[in-house]
Amino acid sequence: MTDLYATAGVDTAAGDTAVELMKRSVAATHGPQVLGGVGGFAGLWDASALTAFRRPVLATSTDGVGTKIAIAQALDKHDTVGQDLVGMVVDDIVVVGAAPLFMTDYIACGRVVPERIAELVGGIARACAEARTALVGGETAEHPDLIAPDDYDLAGAAVGAVEADRLLGPDRVADGDVVLALASSGLHSNGFSLVRRIVRDARLSLTAASGWSSRSLGEELLEPTRLYTAPLLDLLDGADGGAVHAVGHVTGGIAANLARVLPVGAVVDLDRATWSPQPVFRSLAEAGGFALEDAEGTWNLGVGMLAVVAADGADRVGAALTAAGVDAWRAGTVRFGAASGDGFVAGAKGVDGGAVRLVGAYAS
């Protein structure tokens, strides 16, 4: 019998093969709460665990990887962008103090190449396991004539839970709180439209040596997003967890992503001299002909999270994060009053928040 769908450019057999290739990596993220395994119409998660909560609050987030995917496609290297997807989603959940419970993914492509889909989902599954999040389902959609044969896009969503009285946010922030900066692994998954423009205009080769490591420029650009969920959850569940008042996930603008988790009236000067952006940022800025400061609204410049912490617990919190593999340092202090001077960002993403600016010069 003729497969009519195949004549339209959709290979359902390739889709089934992709599922078979990814099943083991997905199953590795499943604990006893996941019911039904892989392949059902809906992912199932046993919510009876929430009965242990006094007042459970659900947190949800959805995001994608963005144009970083174009770098992966150019290098035909697809095993890292899955971690970028997970980081963009679950680390938006942990900033409110919630533990991500489960995640689903969506891959849209022009043509299903089973091995490539398995690479993508394998990266997602490994990152979910690191973030202690079950990957309970997903969808791979083949869109011939709409998406080029070797193009694809990634998106995902996750759900987490937190006790209502342990929610982090602006209402907890106090005068004198310390702002800790948590190191990024590099560009993460933001600002790649600018990255790609620089690569194009400066005629940089993705396969040439980066100049600051043994890896190529393309491999440096594909360094996956650091996952903060597990270290932060361990911290929040520990003796010093109560010292953490608010957390901002730096997905792009540094000042804006802190301002949106501060209350109105809170003011912070972030001191650039407390850190040195990684070589990837300096190299791209030089190739693009602009100063690092000009990219503060686009790239994380070495800071992936900003945590607002009680002053008397800041050193212990910073030491705990560093011991967990996430370098952390004091970058500023919260004060309440008027934001006098230039360069402040006040709130962001429709949130009326605090006022933040970056001051000084970056360490060399």
TrEMBL record:
Superkingdom, taxonomy of origin: Bacteria
Chief localization: cytoplasm
Keyword Nucleotide-binding appears in the UniProt entry: yes
UniProt keywords, alphabetically: ATP-binding, Cytoplasm, Ligase, Nucleotide-binding, Purine biosynthesis
Location relative to the cell: Cytoplasm
Pathway: Purine metabolism; IMP biosynthesis via de novo pathway; 5-amino-1-(5-phospho-D-ribosyl)imidazole from N(2)-formyl-N(1)-(5-phospho-D-ribosyl)glycinamide: step 2/2
InterPro entries, alphabetized: PurM-like_C_dom, PurM-like_C_sf, PurM-like_N, PurM-like_N_sf, PurM_cligase
Any Pfam family hit: AIRS_C
Protein's name in the database: Phosphoribosylformylglycinamidine cyclo-ligase
Organism for this UniProt entry: Amnibacterium soli
Primary gene name: purM
